[in-house]
Design a protein that fits this description.
This protein is mainly α and 245 residues long. It is built from 13 helices and 2 strands; from the N terminus they run αααααββαααααααα. Keywords: Coiled coil, DNA-binding.
């Protein structure tokens, strides 16, 4: 095989093959009388091995060490290993397609595929340009599918079209550039907690965090004053759930 043929067979570029020759990772093959390199199946197997190792994140020096350990192995053994690796990739690809199919089976919103229960809740939400309202919906999509989410959505349904809820979001918007000790924080947090229906506290599972670290990540998504409001709301809701257990 010529360089273009072996490169196409392995799924890399001729330039990459030449680079591997230049750094000594791939030995130079014998040349024909016309000066062209003549690649063998062994060369193709070695190139495929290099490609796969680099795809796994190994640096070229690390690849060199792995290949040194492979030296002298039987060709059939190396081919068998490559075949097993391809079979594993096929299984991973099939699983990714199954996951995609499940997403495509769900109702679609502007925020992506969501559960039917969340789609119904988002569809009933009052129209608003509030940035924090949009962010809240994004967070619901992020957590969609967690334990008890359908019950939580049902409990939140009375709030979906409530103008008072939009007003609370707009007050939260006003804190976008405020410091974390703004005097509006405490009363707004209290009103937000008071607005949450009691059924929500019953529906949210209390115990181990099903999404470790998600609380800190959500808070980091807000500027200081808004984050302090959300932190207080989260703490109050946790305390309320603890009281109801």
């Amino acid at each position: 095989m010529r360089i273009g043929e072996v490169a196409a067979l392995v799924g890399i570029t001729s330039r990459a093959v030449r680079h591997y020759h230049h750094i000594g990772l791939l030995p130079e093959p014998a040349r024909r009388t016309n000066g062209y390199r003549a690649y063998t199946v062994r060369d193709a197997v070695l190139l495929a091995r290099i490609r796969r190792l680099t795809e796994l994140g190994l640096g070229l020096d690390e690849v060199r060490d792995v290949l040194a350990d492979d030296a002298g192995r039987d060709l059939a053994e190396v081919l068998g290993e490559l075949d097993a690796d391809l079979a594993r990739q096929e299984r991973e690809l099939a699983e990714r397609r199954r996951q995609l199919a499940r997403l495509l089976d769900r109702p679609l919103s502007d925020l992506g595929p969501v559960s039917p229960e969340l789609a119904e809740l988002l569809g009933a939400a009052a129209a608003t340009d509030s940035p924090t309202a949009v962010k809240d919906r994004e967070h619901l999509v992020l957590l969609d599918g967690a334990g008890g989410s359908a019950e939580v959505y049902a409990a939140l349904r009375p709030l979906a079209g409530d103008p008072a809820v939009v007003a609370l979001y707009e007050r939260l918007d006003e804190l976008a550039g405020a410091p974390a000790d703004d005097p509006r924080i405490c009363p707004l947090a209290a009103e937000l907690v008071a607005a949450v229906p009691a059924g929500v506290f019953d529906a949210i599972p209390y115990g181990g965090d099903p999404h470790p670290g998600i609380g800190a990540a959500l808070l980091a998504d807000y500027p200081p004053a808004q984050a302090e409001v959300v932190r207080r709301v989260m703490a109050a809701m946790t305390a309320r759930m603890r009281e109801r257990r």
